[in-house]
Each structure stands twice: as structure tokens, then as C-alpha cells.
Amino acid sequence: MLTSSREEVAQVLRLAAEHRVSTERMAALKEIDAEDLLAVVELGVILGELQTRVEAEGLFYPPDPASLARCSLGGNVAENAGGPRASRPLEQAAGVIARQKRLKRQWDPENLLNPGKIFP
What we know:
globular, mainly alpha, two-stranded antiparallel ribbon
């Protein structure tokens, strides 16, 4: 499905939620750009795998929930789950939160995923 607007993305998300479409197979870690501090990933990437790959590049990704070995990045963003490394203000990178908010607003403009839970 090719979308061309935020409204169409919202419609796709609404249909996916209604029909219980899983994103667990969307688990590719496509790129880590150490220079720009950017990781291009799909929703189903397991957070522990992302952290392992990021650390191999000499980088650090702060969120560290107890479910690190099994939680997806999409779920981590949707639930705003940070864990102990992210609970201290100096260690929770403000940029991570800002990017999460922008992604949430961009891909879920009608707040269909976890309505009312995060990023009002």
C-alpha cells in the first residue's frame, strides 16, 4: 500500500488496528549512521538487537526497559518505556524524546495507537 498523506497513513493504521495486523515481521535494522547519530529501523526491531548494533558502532541508545530482549522499538516508542537508564534526566537524551514525539505525530496523527497514553 502506497500512501501519499498523513490522513492515508492514519486510515491504514485504523484498518490495521481493526484487523489486528501485526508488525512483528517488520524487523529490519536498515542502517546505522554513526556520523549523524541516526538509525533507520522498522517497527518490529527488538530493542536489545538495536542496542547491540549501536554499541558495536561505539554509540549509546539510552532506553533500557526490563523487557529489552523482547520488546520492539515500535512498542517502546508507543509506550514511552525507558527503563532505569532513561529515568535520570541527564541520561535521557531530550533528542530521543523529541524524535519519538515527531514520529508518533507523523505516523499516527489521529492518535489511534494507544490513544491518550503518550504524547498528547
